[in-house]
Specification:
single chain; 251 residues; alpha/beta; Rossmann fold; six-stranded parallel sheet; 10 helices; 19% strand; binds adenosine-5'-triphosphate; binds magnesium ion
Length: 251
Amino acid sequence: MHGVFITGTSTNVGKTFTGVNLARQLTRLGITVIPRKPIESGCEEENGQLIPEDALALHRAANYSGSLADVCPFRFQAPISPVRAAHLGNRIFTTEQMVNICLKGSEEGFLLVEGAGGFYSPLAENGLNADLAIALQLPVLLVVNDTLGALNQVLLNVEAIQRRGLKLAGVILNRLDNDPAGKMDNAADLRGHIDCPIYPQAYCEATTVDLPDALIHSLIPDSLSTDSLSTANSLTAATTTVKAATIKAAS
Ligand SMILES: Nc1ncnc2c1ncn2[C@@H]1O[C@H](COP(=O)(O)OP(=O)(O)OP(=O)(O)O)[C@@H](O)[C@H]1O
Ligand SMILES: [Mg+2]
């Protein structure tokens, strides 16, 4: 299966922002993107329906032919963890249900899954976000707020992702505000500790931004490549090879 599991060091760090731009760019390259956000809390009610904002944004960015219910069937109003929100509604969901939602209809395309919260946030009654990523065996893209404290958060998450035997597609160091970074340089500091691609993402007012070509190409398997893909991009083959992420042994 081809795709990516987008997780974060926490909530509100830019998972959807990243997923939307990824979906848009892949779609532009002629790749069929299958977006999934299997459970979403904090949904506003409109005309008697709960609207999952993240799922809707991913659905639109991927120009997805399936329904919004395929993307996100489990929706809750309370802006709390999905498992607790489900409990408040007297519902219980399992990791297996989340897996089925992600897999159903995903055969023909690139499966783009956004979790809820962070890698170790509970997603279902019997599992964490990590368990869904493992069941799907997708490479993980880690999004972090590029601020003071990010180094610790990234290293903890990278260790967790690797301990679970998953491939780390990269780390998005996402600037959530326009404040000057000063002397802080998290990308440079992280490169001394981890051996995976690190993609700094500047703060931007616009919701659409082009993510780095190297990231896009590292996620695209040969079997999904199209002629339009090769002509639309003049990347070297070298950018398609991403080293398996490993925490460098402390010297
Ligand atoms: N690089 C950026 N520049 C400007 N604004 C950003 C950037 N990244 C994210 N944002 C904004 O920050 C907010 C949080 O981002 P986003 O919704 O993508 O986070 P999330 O991790 O998906 O949150 P959740 O845990 O609720 O799903 C959004 O308003 C988003 O538009
Ligand atoms: Mg989100």
